[in-house]
Amino acid sequence: MTFTPVDKPPFAITTPLYYVNGLPHIGSAYTTIAADVVARFYRLMGHPVLMITGTDEHGQKIQRTAEERGVSPQEHCDEFAAGFERLWGLLNIDCDRFIRTTSPRHNTIVNEFFQRLWERGDVYKGQQQGWYCVSCEEFKEERDLLPNQHCAIHTNKPVEWRDESNYFFKLSNYQEQLEQFYAEHPDFIQPEPRRNEVLSFVKRGLQDFSISRINLDWGFPVPTDPDQTLYVWFDALLGYLTALQDPSEPPSLERAVAKWWPIDIHLTGKDILRFHAISWPAMLMSAGLPLPGRIFSHGFLTKDGQKMGKSQGNTLDPVALVETYGPDAVRYYFLREIEFGKDGDFSETRFINVLNADLANDLGNLLNRTLKMAGRYCEGRVPEVDPQTIAADHPLRAIGLSLPETVAGAYSHLAFSQVCTAVLSLVQASNKFLDEQAPWSLYKQGKQAETEAVLYAVLESVRQAAYLLSPVIPGIGNQIYTQLGFAIDFDDKAIGQRISYGDHAAWGYLPPGQRLGEAAPVFQRLELPEPVASP
Ligand code: MSP
After folding, report:
1. Contact (CB, 8 A) for 427 and 396
2. Do residues 210 and 231 touch, judged by C-beta distance below 8 A?
3. Which ligand 1 atom minimizes the distance to the CA of 308?
4. Which structural domain range is residue 422 located in?
5. Whose CA is nearest to atom 21 of ligand 1?
6. Preceding omega of 191 cis (within 30 degrees of 0)
7. Ligand 1 centroid from CA 368, angstroms
8. How much of the chain is helix, strand and coil, in % rounded to 5?
9. Mean pLDDT of 394-402
10. Pocket test for ligand 1, best of 28, 113, 317, 339 (most atoms within 8 A of CB)
11. pLDDT tens across 52-63, in order?
């Protein structure tokens, strides 16, 4: 049966476009998981959704990495971009658009966009002098550098002095307009502490920034001066526009912004917030385009309390992690454990403890033992209980009644950890309820109706929990729904058109009498790996 939802507005979300100077790290996986979860939640509610990710392939950093490897930049990019796509597959992330900034269609959009800024009179030639961090692909202010001219983010890399004639974008023209926009749209930059950082930075006075480089081949030529190459960040931000256009249509800026623009949410790490919250809106104002809905900046991940980095030798390989523990475990841990917007830590012990407690014990065992009882006491069917007859103050129904609103609010504020704890509170209450009511003993006493009432309430709570958590743990959601007798696939992008969000999010939807599936553990307990014996 296909359900036809009321028309919902389109919703678009992006991750940053990742540099292909190395394989994807856990930071890139973190943002992309978050974007996928939001996209899945909006799909569940029946919105047309476009989730965009991709790779940022131009610039000096990539050119140098390719040279060091002895391959052409394009060969290098092809190889590394494939690594990103592979990881997204492993993490059960099915993006709608994967944009690569070296694609010829992107060049067309970049040229058109540049032309708009040029015609507006916002581009001029000037002299660029300053310290450049190739790893950030950004000029740094002297006062922000560490002693010995090192970048504060890439502490092992000295910045390089540049003195060249470049094209500049008149960012300073947009000082007032930006400040007015921030004031009128207090939710534009989130979370609040990040917004305050941006506002105080802007208040100090905006300076024009160079949008081209000389002596760099790896990038698109400046349309009005092919001796110069467009700055990688100028080109990269425009990737968000190129990604919007249906790849089967010939590229044009007008068509690119026809359906999905303005994008609802750009997710970024805190190190690249200024590009997204200051440069990008000013470029869009100059091009005469409306601004995106919000820019949400998340924190940084550390490992065992230490900053992660190749030089520290403590990087966390997302491919190894997902191959060992599976996609739902990785997705759940990072979103449940770390408040989105704040810094957070990965420790394998904590990872295993959280997953065993929440997914294996609280959720998985609850379903397993309740299903087995329903098999024995109710002939393998959902108990014949009319949910309308269950009192509104029933301990589980009471939680289930307010849960959809709490969870929807938390998803739309990207408060993933709150989503998980709110849903888990229903699961924990269900375990307590089951133990207190002891349906096995009710059954022995011949109290069939009471037994069924208990089992219905618990099975229904597990169903509601699985549905509301399905954007975070779609694999487990699918298994739970199958075991409860549904034929529904949470990986189906048209899910919001097939089933009603209103029906499934609400407590009391589980159809009485529905044949249940086979009980099987939905999440295997994890064991801490054996410590490696020292030689
Ligand atoms: N190419 C630019 C983005 C252009 S968007 C038009 C870029 N790429 S990146 O690959 O270096 O970084 C991508 C994202 O990873 C950034 O949002 C950055 O904040 C994030 N992270 C890098 N290290 C991180 C952690 N240790 N933890 C969490 N996120 C981190 O910047």
Report:
1. no
2. yes
3. 26
4. 347-505
5. 27
6. yes
7. 40
8. 50, 15, 35
9. 98
10. 28
11. 999 999 999 999
In this prediction, residue 305 has a pLDDT band, given cuts at 50, 70 and 90, of confident
- In tens, the pLDDT along 311-359 reads 667 788 999 999 999 999 999 999 999 999 999 999 999 999 999 999 9
Number of domains present in the structure of the chain: 1
Residue 243 maps to a domain: no
- pLDDT given at position 528: 79
Q: What is the pLDDT of residue 148?
A: 83
**Would you give the distance in Å from CA 217 to the centre of its chain?**
33
Q: Whose CA is nearest to atom 13 of ligand 1?
A: 18
- Nearest-CA residue for atom 29 of ligand 1: 27
Query: Widest CA span of the chain, in angstroms?
Result: 89
CA distance linking residue 119 with residue 244, whole number of Å: 24
pLDDT in tens, 171-223: 999 999 999 999 999 999 999 999 999 999 999 999 999 999 998 999 999 99
The pLDDT, as a whole number, for residue 532 is 56
β-pairing, 265-269 with 294-298?
A: parallel
3-state secondary structure of 438: coil
Rounded to the nearest angstrom, the distance between the alpha carbon of 326 and the centre of ligand 1 is 23
- What is the side-by-side strand order in the sheet with 123-133? 138-140, 123-133, 160-169, 209-210
Q: What is the pLDDT of residue 531?
A: 61
Share of the chain above pLDDT 70, in %: 97
- DSSP β-bridge partners for residue 345: 302
Task: Give me ligand 1 centre to Cα 404, in Å.
Answer: 32
Does an H or E element contain 265, and which? strand 265-269
Domain of residue 429, CATH code: 1.10.730.10
Give domain status of residue 415, yes or no. Answer: yes
* CA 268 – ligand 1 centroid, Å: 7
Rounded to whole angstroms, how far apart are CA atoms 51 and 92? 13
What spacing in Å lies between the alpha carbon of 27 and ligand 1's midpoint?
7
CA of 29 to the centre of ligand 1 (A): 10
User: Structure pTM?
Assistant: 0.96
pLDDT at 533: 57
- Which of the listed residues 234, 272, 278, 295 should we mutate to test ligand 1's pocket, taking the one with most ligand atoms within 8 A of CB? 272
Task: State the distance from the centre of ligand 1 to the C-alpha of 271, rounded, in angstroms.
Answer: 7
Taking the CA of residue 21 as reference, the ligand 1 atom at the shortest distance is: 10
Would you state the structure tokens that stand for residue 42, as one six-digit string?
A: 């909006």
Give 375 Cα–ligand 1 centroid separation in angstroms: 49
Q: CB 320: neighbour CB atoms within 10 A? A: 9
Q: Is residue 467 part of a domain?
A: yes
- The pocket around ligand 1, CB under 6 angstroms, is made up of 16-19, 27-28, 30-31, 56, 236-237, 239, 268-269, 271-272, 300-301, 308
Nearest CA to ligand 1 atom 17: 269
Task: Determine, yes or no, domain membership for 260.
Answer: no
